[in-house]
Amino acid sequence: MLQSLDVSDNNFTGTLPAGLASLEQLQELTLSTNLFSGELPAAWGAPGAFKQLTYLEFSSIDVTGGLPAAWGSPHGFQKIRVLYCQDSVQLGGTLPESWASPGAFPNVQEMILYNSSIGGTISASWGFPDGFPKLQRLNLGSSSLQGNIPAFNNAALAGLDLDDCKLNGSLDMFWRSSAPLQAVSLSSNHISGSLPDVPGALSELTLLNLGDNQMTGTVPLSWLQEGNLLSHFSVLDVGDVWQRSVDLTGWRQQLCLQTNLYDLDVTGQQAKLLPDERQSWESYENSSNANANISVWLQEGMLSQWTLGYLVQNTNNQLTSVKDICANDDSSRVLLIVWLVFGGACLFVLGVYVCLQRYKLHGSVQPVLWRHLLHVCKAVEALYEVCYGLGGLAFYYYDLITSIIVLAQVWGKWPASALGHFPGPFCYNWHHCCLSWYLQAI
After folding, report:
1. DSSP 3-state assignment of 412?
2. 404 and 304, same structural domain?
3. Residues 311, 355: one domain?
4. What string of DSSP letters covers 64-106?
């Protein structure tokens, strides 16, 4: 019995035959890159049609009309796992609400409807928890979709690609999504407003692409707090919002405390924190039979990795600039140099005092010289008071301490725990040594 039918890259014409649905053992059907015309057969979604079909591809053909609402029948496409349509630019209409109804497409894991003329809005039903229960990746990019982006609460949705559409409005509704989203690409739309300040939202998100939109404001400071978005992001593009945020000193210092971002690949093409996903995508690109490879990944549960790998390749990762931003922060560099010079001067005076103390203990110091020695020790004590006062002030002066920690972490020289209390304990211990020597001399 026929299980796989691939007629791609031919010059077949005419309409798509409805009778194909009677092939009960057919598992994979590829019709791409032909001259088929007419509408997609509604009969393909009827009860009993394509009983074993798991993979359907009809890319780069000239079908017209829209997506058949009948395909959303509770008894149609019961085993379909991949629905793939790319570059069928004459395919129009809207997204049928019936497709997201309970019982429709119960096993679909990947739905690609990329580069089409599908318009209208994305119905809220497409994000309902009982819609597409096993869907892992949804790509509706390069279409005529418009309106707000709804919340996606699908149980398994990991990758969402809505690039290059006509979507507008704010992200407030979408930001309430409860789906386990890992990669979201919404670039080249007309999205406006500011980035939502909702701590803890989209807790599994690893990649976010909002480039080439009309966003205002800056990245919320709550994103920088431990456990929030930038704590687990590996790839981020928020367009002009990023530079506006970096230009703010306080925001920049908070960013530089996210040391996990220093390890990102400086090429800006891939993230070191996604090695498995990158390897999966490279194996897909190098495969001789991409469709067969997708089928294997579906069986092995690797589809979400393929999604991340693809989007990493196609996102301008602004996080790769974090290390350079922090390392080239002139205010941090100047402050650290000032503290090092001041500490070095204190150590030099202390060294002079210790040498003079050793001469005195051996009886080789004249009374006049000893009196000078006492003056030196008093000067050292005065320096301590200055150092101790400045140290206490700096301990509470958050920006100064933050700058020192940031540069130390960027350069990889000192741990933050060693610098967190600089210079207070250092001056305190040194003062006690100097004071004990001073009392002995008296």
Report:
1. coil
2. no
3. no
4. BSB--GGGG-TTSSSS--EEEEES-TT-BSB--GGGGSTTSST
CA distances from 437 to 355, 373, 407, 426 (A): 12, 11, 36, 17
Judged on CB neighbours under 10 Å (0-12, 13-18, 19+), 37 is middle
Backbone angles phi, psi at 420, to 5 degrees: -60, -30
Polymer length of the chain: 442
**How many other CB atoms are found less than 10 A from the CB of residue 408?**
18
Which DSSP category does 170 fall into?
-
Q: Is 415 helix (H, G, I), strand (E, B) or coil?
A: coil
Determine whether 431 is exposed, middle or buried from the number of CB atoms within 10 Å of its CB (0-12, 13-18, 19+).
middle
Summarised one tens digit per residue, pLDDT across range 351-399 is 766 666 665 555 554 556 566 666 666 776 676 667 666 666 655 555 5
Phi then psi dihedrals of residue 428, to 5 deg: -65, -45
Same domain, yes or no, for 256 and 388? no
Q: Considering its fold, how many domains does the chain have in total?
A: 2
Residues 60 and 90: their CA atoms lie apart, in Å, by: 10
Which domain covers residue 130, as residue numbers?
A: 4-325
For the whole model, what pTM was predicted? 0.72
CA 264 to chain centre: 11
Phi, psi (deg, nearest 5) at residue 259: -65, -20
